[in-house]
């Protein structure tokens, strides 16, 4: 079955090449006008027919939510290919037009991320999370001047979850291990592709004069303008595209998990695109990206490991540890920190989207003033304290089930407990309480308010 799916994928790519190479008396697409598919479109086809097709085939074999997620990813890569075909024969358009060209792919990326959020109880939640955390990498087409490093950053963001899949399935089902390897290879090969063809940003045509492709045509090839003769039509079309609210009447209601202030995964450098919620932004400028004033720090200062001001660092490791030492992580964002060995305590302070993995702590792990952090216990820890934090997932193992979790002034806290079959059960930490006077003292219990 997997081989058949892969064959179908390759056939689809081949048909796409033939369609692009065909010419139909002025009505063909941009590739048809030049008589051949661009070299970098052919190279991208190899990516689709290679690791993307293999990932899709393995996802179908796994089935369920993984398969459904992969179908959305397939659409996203298809839309990106259409954009590349457009760019290969068109001069770079204005930012507003580029926004319209990016819209179909952006919408699917949001659907990929929303699918994960709507299926948090799925038995393959780690698979869905790995894809959801890294799919913004497809936004490289709007990033300059370093699209390759941006893809690497998004790939690293999935590491926490791909490692979980490997840990859960390496002794149970090798197909899931292969799935991880294939999925990661997509982003590795995409980085190599970008380095070869789009080093400083998406390469637009420099030889075709004033040719733009209509983003509303289903085939992306029905509307072409050339030179000054088509300027009026060109301006009229894109004026209609950029009408604002009228263009969005057919879109579905935007739920909380699709809003940037509710779902941090929709935020990246440079701010949102002007036409609506997007999981990535147009090319960032110096004005939109203020310079960092504090350098990143990872050093041992006496008995304290200081980890400060880390941004997008997914390979942070502290390995040479001693029992008397503590780890203090301050203002680390979108990063992953692993602490090996047995130490005294760990503190996370003012961190966002930080993944912490540690072996053994004899004292306490404190999470203070953080947002969207994940803490994974590989060994033992007696106490985990969560204070003034919005979004905290704690992964326990069988040796740390006796851990006490103390929380205050925090929300969206979940503890994931391993089952006998190796899967995890996610249990929310109560946020609402009821307090009554029993005649001699106040008695407080956790409660839920219906509605």
Quick structural overview:
This protein is of the alpha/beta class and 451 residues long.
Notes on the structure:
A hairpin with a 5-residue loop joins strand 13 and strand 14 (424-428). With 451 residues, this protein is α/β, with parallel strands linked by helices. The strands form 3 sheets. The protein has a 7-stranded mixed β-sheet with strand order 1-2-4-6-8-10-12, with no helix packed on it. The protein is built from 10 helices and 16 strands. Helix 1 (2-21) packs antiparallel against helix 3 (39-62) and helix 3 (39-62) packs antiparallel against helix 4 (64-89). Among the domains are: 39-198, Adenylate cyclase-associated CAP, N-terminal domain (Serine Threonine Protein Phosphatase 5, Tetratricopeptide repeat), CATH 1.25.40; 297-446, Pectate Lyase C-like (3 Solenoid), CATH 2.160.20. Mean pLDDT is 79; it is low at 20-35, 209-251 and 267-289. It has helices spanning 2-21, 30-34, 39-62, 64-89, 95-118, 125-134, 147-157, 159-169, 174-197, 231-241; strands at residues 297-301, 304-308, 316-318, 326-330, 333-343, 345-349, 352-361, 364-368, 371-377, 383-387, 390-395, 404-408, 411-418, 424-428, 433-437, 442-446. Helix content is 37%, strand content 21%. 35% of the residues are buried. Residues 295-429 form the C-CAP/cofactor C-like domain. Residues 254-282 are annotated as: Disordered.
